[in-house]
Amino acid sequence: MPRLLLSITLLLLSVSAPALAEEARSGTAEEQKACTRDVQKFCRHVIDQGDFTILACLKENRPKISEACDTVLKSHNQ
Questions:
Q1: Half-sphere CA count of 63, side-chain side, radius 13 A
Q2: What is the radius of gyration, based on Cα positions, of the chain?
Q3: Of 36, 45, 68, 73, which has the maximum CB count within 10 A?
Q4: Within 10 A of 24 (CB to CB), how many other CB atoms are there?
Q5: pTM of the model as a whole
C-alpha cells in the first residue's frame, strides 16, 4: 500500500512538476500511466489533500475509472 500511495503522489507531482517527478518516481511507468488520467479526471479536487484522500477518491470512483487503473489498485490489494 505505501508503494501505491507513493506512486499516486508522484503521479500527481508529475502533473504539476515534471522535472521533480522524473527524479523521484518509484512506481513503474505502467502503473503511473494507468492512473494519471483517472486522478486528473476524478480526483483533481483532492490532489492537495494527501495520498489517502486520493486513494479514497479513486476507490469512490472505481466504477468510472479505467480498467488499467483498477488493475493497478487491485495489484496493491486496494
A1: 0
A2: 11
A3: 73
A4: 13
A5: 0.66
